[in-house]
Structure formats: structure tokens, C-alpha cells
Design a protein that fits this description.
It catalyses: Release of N-terminal amino acids, preferentially methionine, from peptides and arylamides. The chain has about 250 residues and is an alpha+beta fold. The chain is built from four helices and 15 strands. The strands form four sheets. It has a five-stranded antiparallel β-sheet with strand order 8-7-9-14-15. Strands 1, 2, 4 and 5 form a four-stranded antiparallel β-sheet that branches. A three-stranded antiparallel β-sheet has the order 3-12-11, with no helix packed on it. The relative contact order is 0.19. The chain binds 2-amino-4-trifluoromethylsulfanyl-butyric acid and cobalt (II) ion.
Length: about 250
């Protein structure tokens, strides 16, 4: 069942989302060759704590860190470690925050130093695919309109969408109904309406769509070893329109 949120509940989710948006603005400057993913996770943990919030991920099904940090062929759910980032890597950082009982969830892929044109294009297409999906998150449309917009944009650019992991409702829990696949058909699935809060999150592979989980039980990697990117926003449908809750709009 999809939980419809009141305006005041959406305001609270937005407060959590704002923390993630500010965190992403600041973390950018810390992503450098030689930095370990654990150092980045520690910084993220401190940032969340300073803002009076807690990580929505730590302890979730036993997850052992405050963020997920996935490098190159790692798609999502990478566990921060002593792995050093190197020039040319791409690094996907996924953060969930809980404040006053309300959750927001967002992710972005960053370049480490100078990266190849191909990796830069993968990042750009994944980010744009997210915005294509968000544009469809309007009252009266259906979940499948979001899914189709993402898949068709990605495939038009000759990349593939991961089929094994999904976006989701968010707010009173980290994962709520509905499930939001990054592939599907227009005019199918649940109808969207005001008060829905959704985490839309395309995971895009440069090569084939197949993924597998490493023996650590968490890290999802591409089967063909080619790079993958991930962008996610939590959005609310207000007055029929999508409002992004995990992004700082200039002047707000
Ligand atoms: N951020 C992921 C999602 O969007 C969830 C990560 S779960 C964790 O659904 F346990 F790995 F933290
Ligand atoms: Co999510």
C-alpha cells in the first residue's frame, strides 16, 4: 500500500533531504586520488551526526556503514573499505538520512580527478535519465511512465539499465511501496497522485545489464566488469508536480 504524506510530513522529509543535498555539495571536494572509501564514509557519518540526524543505512539488515560507496564496476551497495580511489575512477555514493522519524535517500556518481570521456558520458546519461524519470512523476501519470522514460533514455544512448534493483517509496521508512523499476511500459502500474514521496534511482551500466552480488553479501557488480553509474533523488508530488527534496535549488 502506498502511504500518502501530508504537507507537513513532506516538509519533514525535505529536512532530511536537505542534509543529503548539502552533504553532496561538500563531499565533492573530498573525492581525490589516494582517499579511501572508508575515509569518505567517516566524513559522511560525522556530517550526518553534526546535523542531528542518523544514517538510515547503518544497521539496515546488518549493513555495516553510514553510506554505500561503489567504485567503477561496482553498481551499488559497496561497503566502505581501505580501498584507495585513483585518478580515472568513478565513485557512486548513496546516502540515506533519518531525522525526526522521516527518511530521505539520494545517490550520485562522482569522477575521481580526470576521467575518460566514456565514463563522463556514462555519468551524464545516468543523471539525465534520473531527470527524465522525475519529469514523468506527475499526478495522473503511472509508475510505468517513470520506468519507461528512464529505460528509453538510457537505451537510446546505448547503455543498459539494471533490472534487479529498483526505486521505491520513501518517508516513514527507508523503503516503502511502490516499487519503481527502471524499465517498463507507459500507462502501466499504479497511478501517481499528490502526497506520494518516491526515491527514483536509475543504475546504468556501460555494458550488459547483468549484475551479481560479491561474497561480502552486499556489493553489487556488473557481470562484464564494465563501469556503472547511479543517481537517485527523493521527490514528492505536490500540486500535481514533482518536487525534488534532495537537491539545493539556487535561491532556496
Ligand atoms: N540506498 C539504497 C536504496 O536506495 C539502500 C541501501 S541499503 C543499505 O534502496 F543497507 F545498503 F544501506
Ligand atoms: Co533508494
Amino acid at each position: 500500500m502506498i502511504r500518502i504524506k501530508s504537507r507537513s510530513q513532506i516538509k519533514l522529509i525535505e529536512k532530511s533531504g536537505r542534509i543529503i543535498a548539502e552533504l553532496f555539495e561538500e563531499v565533492q571536494g573530498r573525492i581525490k586520488p589516494g582517499t579511501t572509501t572508508l575515509q569518505i564514509d567517516r566524513w559522511i557519518g560525522e556530517f550526518i551526526k553534526k546535523r542531528g540526524a542518523i544514517s538510515a543505512f547503518r544497521g539496515y539488515r546488518g549493513y555495516p556503514a553510514d553510506s554505500c560507496i561503489s567504485v567503477n564496476e561496482e553498481v551499488v551497495h559497496g561497503i566502505p573499505s581501505n580501498r584507495k580511489l585513483k585518478e580515472g575512477d568513478i565513485v557512486s555514493i548513496d546516502v540515506g538520512v533519518k531525522l525526526n522519524g522521516y527518511y530521505a535517500d539520494a545517490a550520485r556518481t562522482f569522477p575521481v580527478g580526470k576521467i575518460s570521456l566514456e565514463k563522463a558520458r556514462l555519468i551524464r546519461v545516468t543523471r539525465e535519465a534520473l531527470y527524465e524519470g522525475i519529469r514523468q512523476a506527475r499526478a495522473g501519470n503511472r509508475i510505468g511512465d517513470i520506468s519507461f522514460a528512464i529505460q528509453s533514455y538510457v537505451e537510446r544512448h546505448n547503455y543498459s539499465v539494471v533490472k534487479d534493483l529498483f526505486g521505491h517509496g520513501v518517508g516513514e521508512a527507508l523503503h516503502e511501496d511502490p516499487v519503481i523499476p527502471n524499465f517498463g511500459w507507459p500507462k502501466t502500474g499504479e497511478r501517481l497522485r499528490d502526497g506520494m514521496v518516491l526515491a527514483i534511482e536509475p543504475m546504468v551500466n556501460q555494458g550488459r545489464d547483468k549484475v551479481k552480488v560479491l561474497p561480502d553479501g552486499w556489493t553489487v557488480v556488473t557481470e562484464d566488469g564494465k563501469p556503472s553509474a547511479h543517481f537517485e533523488h527523493s521527490i514528492a508530488i505536490i500540486d500535481g508536480e514533482p518536487k525534488i527534496l534532495t537537491e539545493i535549488i539556487d535561491g532556496e
